[in-house]
Design a protein that fits this description.
- This protein is mainly α and 81 residues long.
- Helix content is 53%, strand content 0%.
- It contains four helices and no strands.
- Helix 1 packs antiparallel against helix 2 and helix 1 crosses helix 3.
- The longest helix has 15 residues.
- It is globular.
- The two termini are 23 Å apart.
């Protein structure tokens, strides 16, 4: 498991109101995160991984794996500080 994947899984788990298993194929919408949760996730990703993303754009990632792929993508690496 990559650093990004581990961090994203841990961060999402911390935002959930009820404990549940998270996998790469978990649908982001199934977590029932609200806009503040997405904002917290975006800030955490930027602070820890250096990947800047507008929290509104996090809604476009269908699965946790999609988000991890985006963070690990070539575009993400080139935008890191």
């Amino acid at each position: 498991m990559s650093e990004a994947e581990s961090f994203i899984f841990t961060t999402i788990k911390s935002l959930l109101r009820e404990p549940r298993e998270i996998t790469a194929s978990s649908n982001m919408r199934d977590f029932t995160l609200d806009s503040l949760d997405y904002s917290d996730l975006a800030i955490a990703i930027e602070d820890r991984l250096g990947w800047s993303v507008d929290d509104d754009k996090l809604w476009q990632y269908e699965t946790v794996g999609d988000l991890v792929k985006a963070v690990n993508s070539e575009d993400a690496r080139s935008s890191r500080k």
